[in-house]
């Protein structure tokens, strides 16, 4: 049976799932440990952490923002020592932006705060509910293409 022939999903499952994911994401983001760093800046730091050093243009494209916006984000992160800039090895007009140890420490603190919050919520659930969520996380990862 191809996807065109697949039975219809539960009528409002897509809507309920979307709202649940949005709400959970909002609650996780609210566990922000350093209010001096915006969520936009954290996103850029996470991209650098996951993808490694890149040019400002590559970072802007990855974050789906315009280069002038990313220039401001990079400047603010550089000012507080969370990223560093070095000359591009082959193009003197370009620079390479990379995460500093302080930037990596900040990301680790942010992730730890979010996971502590989530661990507390998970501890409130039954073993059966945690098992269901473990399975659901696998399914959601598959749906997301990871």
Question: What does this protein look like?
Answer:
The chain is mostly helical. The protein has a domain at 36-117: Orthogonal Bundle (Arc Repressor Mutant, subunit A). It has 6 helices and 2 strands. It has helices spanning 13-29, 39-51, 56-63, 67-79, 101-123, 127-144; strands at residues 83-87, 95-99. A two-stranded antiparallel ribbon has the order 1-2. Strand 1 (83-87) and strand 2 form a beta hairpin. The chain is elongated, with a radius of gyration of 20 Å. The two termini are 24 Å apart. The model has no long low-confidence stretch (mean pLDDT 91).
Give me the CATH architecture of the domain at 36-117, please.
Orthogonal Bundle
How many beta-strand runs? 2
Major β-sheet annotation: 2 strands, antiparallel
The total of helices stands at 6
What is the CATH topology descriptor of the domain at 36-117? Arc Repressor Mutant, subunit A
Mean pLDDT: 91
Sketch the topology as an H/E string, one letter per element: HHHHEEHH
Low-confidence stretches: none
Strand order of the largest sheet: 1-2
**Strand portion:** 5-15%
* Main CATH class of the domain at 36-117: Mainly Alpha
As a whole number of angstroms, the C-alpha radius of gyration is 20 Å
C-alpha end-to-end distance = 24 Å
Overall helicity? 55-70%
Helices and strands: which structural class? mainly alpha
- Described by the principal axes of the CA atoms, the overall outline is elongated
For the record, what is the CATH homologous superfamily label of the domain at 36-117?
Winged helix-like DNA-binding domain superfamily/Winged helix DNA-binding domain
């Amino acid at each position: 049976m191809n996807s065109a022939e697949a039975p219809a999903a539960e009528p409002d499952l897509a809507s309920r799932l979307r709202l649940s994911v949005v709400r959970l994401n909002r609650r996780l983001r609210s566990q922000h440990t350093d209010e001096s760093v915006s969520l936009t800046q954290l996103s850029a730091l996470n991209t650098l952490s996951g993808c490694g050093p890149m040019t400002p243009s590559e970072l802007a494209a990855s974050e789906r923002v315009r280069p002038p916006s990313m220039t401001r984000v990079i400047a603010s992160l550089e000012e507080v020592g969370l990223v560093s800039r070095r000359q591009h090895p082959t193009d003197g007009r370009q620079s390479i932006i990379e995460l500093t140890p302080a930037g990596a420490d900040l990301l680790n603190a942010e992730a730890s705060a979010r996971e502590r919050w989530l661990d507390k919520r998970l501890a409130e659930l039954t073993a059966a509910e945690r098992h269901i969520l473990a399975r659901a996380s696998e399914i959601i990862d598959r749906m997301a293409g990871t």
